[in-house]
Amino acid sequence: MKKLTYLLSALLIASIGLVGCDNAEDNEAPTISNLKVNGVAVVDAVSAKAGEVTITFDLADDSEIKNYTVLAGSTSLDSKEVGADKKSVTVTYNLVSSVIITINVTDDDDKTTTKPFNLNKDGNISAFEEKLLGSYLNTSAGSFLATVTGTVYTQATAFETANQSKIDMLYYFGATNKATLAAPNDDDAATIYNNATTGLQKWTTKNATKFKMTTLTAAQFTSVTTDTELMAAFDAVAGTGDSFSKELAIGKVVAFKTAAGKYGLANVTALVENANGSIKILVKVGK
Fold first, then answer.
1. Could you tell me which residues are beta bridge partners of residue 45?
2. How many domains are there within the chain?
3. Nearest to 123, CA basis, from 234, 48, 54
4. DSSP assignment letter at 242
């Protein structure tokens, strides 16, 4: 009888232990919700005027939140222990230039949720006069563009270590894609700009710019004056974008987002459609 009682007790303890393990495994990661900047809901990016901005969000967990951190780039804006299952957070930040904000929250099971978003400085944008980009057989015009400065580089000068990180896009006219703007990390571009010494396959930094073809007219392009409008033009087209925008034609307006998180538009104003031809584009990009 004692043996039976001992066996039943052991089984009961084991079953309790298993239930406890199952419950631990069923615990969900903490959540970040109601994220806003100056009262505007945030998905992946938001723009705000330079100066003090207010970031608010709610944290929740099915057990207990251990701690959270908020970073602007690599700079800590807030970091606190919580010890509760819910927490509403308000953080202020002096916005000087566009930055990536990252929120991290960890619960008592050491499960972590991370939410990064682009906080872009709204205001004046950079607008460049027509930029001439040559295709890969054009020997008189550079093919690589740094959108931050509006500088056009040849393949040789773009390859220089100090310049690779500046290049956001390049141009070529191909047999299949025709007139194309592409990111330095685009696979097709690498088969065209493949010089044994300075080709893209030799680059150590290849920016992953994303492109989307818009339905904007040249007149609508001209009217764009803020970062918010640039971002809206990109977000208005479904998807995350591609590493190229092909079959370009005069009057087309391409939206782009650089690897640094800056939004821009390129309006095609002239086109010579062959491998030694060229394209002219007007460019607007967030500062």
1. 118
2. 2
3. 48
4. B
